[in-house]
Amino acid sequence: MTFIHDDFLLESKAARRLYHTYAAHQPIIDYHCHLPPRDVAEDRRFANLFEIWLEGDHYKWRAMRASGVSERYCTGDAQPYEKFEAWANTVPSCLRNPLYHWTHLELKRYFGIDDLLDERTADSVWARANEQLKSPKLSAKGILGKFCVKAVCTTDDPADPLTHHETISASGLPTKVYPTFRADRVMDPHQPDVFNAWVDKLAATANVHIARLTDLLDALRKRHQAFHDIGGRLSDHGLDQCYAADCTEDEAKSIFLKARGGASATPEEREAFASYMMVFFGHLDADKGWTKQLHLGARRNASTRAFKTLGRDTGYDSIGDLPQVEALGRYLDRLDQENSLPKTIVYNLNPRDNYAFATMIGNFQDGSAPGKIQFGSGWWFLDQKEAMEWQLNALSNNGLLAHFVGMLTDSRSFMSYPRHEYFRRVLCNLLGREMENGELPNDEKMIGGLVEKVCFKNAERHFGLKL
Predict the structure, then answer these.
(1) pLDDT confidence of residue 61
(2) Quick one: which of 197, 209, 335 has its CA closest to 277?
(3) Structure pTM?
(4) What is the distance between the alpha carbons of residues 23 and 17, in angstroms, rounded to a whole number?
(5) 104, 138, 172 — which closes off a domain?
(6) Given this model, what pLDDT does residue 125 score?
């Protein structure tokens, strides 16, 4: 039997029936990812396995460095095959790391390759995969069709134009590709060089002269509307912690002018300004019926040396250890008191916070929509089998799994769509085990209906995307 077989991860008869009957054929709504919209607009063709698989993949870079591989073969100037060969040599050391599962699931689903990747099979895998990449079925658009992706929500800065999204929208692509509004740089008045460069870019894109705080808010409203007009229905914030300090309009104006003048906001001023902006963004999302996403708890750019030489998003981030609950609760409560709490998904990166987040969402369900406030799927370091089960258990024990909107890729790679399959297998295995143990009714139709909702139907209902 090959390593990746039909019943991979499915330990019981009930799990296998649930997966093959109710989960395997479900379409995908990838409601949070980092795919470049330009690649879709231009229907990018990938020249080789490095381009589609290793380019920009910080998960693999971390593993390679840990295995003693020189940076030249991660982000450096080595040739594409040399980088692939270095990865192939690393894979056997990844046993029990989710990369081992992902690697072989992806080789199987994209190229039909069952070989275990290592230094002996590298040449053959490279040649066979590259030959298949010549087919339009494995172009950027071809992949979306291959995996029955109904919608993709990319992550987009409001200071960037939506040109590529406009091209995609006009192309008639069956997969809908929508932008997600992520304005994290507005939280940086403590770094006036970064902040002002971003504000100037936003001003140019929105065609709004930004001299005062009211100008900034007008520009952001205009961009938020532009995202909405092209079909966007989600926003996202990647934060160390939720911002929830008190800040008056006059205080926010003063901090904005200070930063625009080139002076750094103090830590207290930065928190106050960011808190003011988060309330503003909450109102924008609530007014439009959007879903807000809060990604909380990453410890980013831990290595100063690597940040200076390689920049951000190169594999030097980790789980943070900051307290999350008080600020998150204050933020949600502030919007709730103002009748401006949008549909919201909260994601934690520290598993310590699983039960805190799973119970926090229950405080703000208001009966207006099933699962209005969501405890998000396992994120980043937690999007693997063990932590997926932790998240499912915490949600089930403290809320309603039946209304969960399910999995996403959160990926920059077009090779990541099997992560939905991986999650679905984990979900079905968990439910099937409990059916056979008598912890759930032995009612396949009822449990299968739950599987269908979590895999696709809940997301289809919840986000209001035009499919």
Answers:
(1) 97
(2) 335
(3) 0.97
(4) 9
(5) 138
(6) 98
Q: Which of 405, 395, 335, 423 is nearest to 369 (CA)?
A: 405
Residue 423: closest CA among 379, 460, 371: 379
Tell me if 4 is assigned to some domain: no
SS3 string of 429-456?
HHHHHHHHCCCCCCCHHHHHHHHHHHHH
Inside any domain, residue 8: no
Q: Is the pLDDT of residue 420 over 90?
A: yes
pLDDT, one tens digit per residue, over 67-87 is 999 999 999 999 999 999 999
CA distances from 227 to 42, 197, 279 (A): 20, 21, 19
**DSSP code at position 394:** H
CATH of the domain at 92: 1.10.2020.10
Cα–Cα distance measured from residue 404 to residue 397, given in angstroms and rounded to the nearest whole number = 13
Query: Quick check: is 7 in a domain?
Result: no
Check if the beta carbon of residue 436 is closer than 8 Å to that of residue 14: yes
Q: Give the span between the Cα atoms of 401 and 383, in whole angstroms.
A: 17
Whether 1 shows a pLDDT value over 90: the answer reads: no
Express as a percent the part of the chain with pLDDT over 70: 100
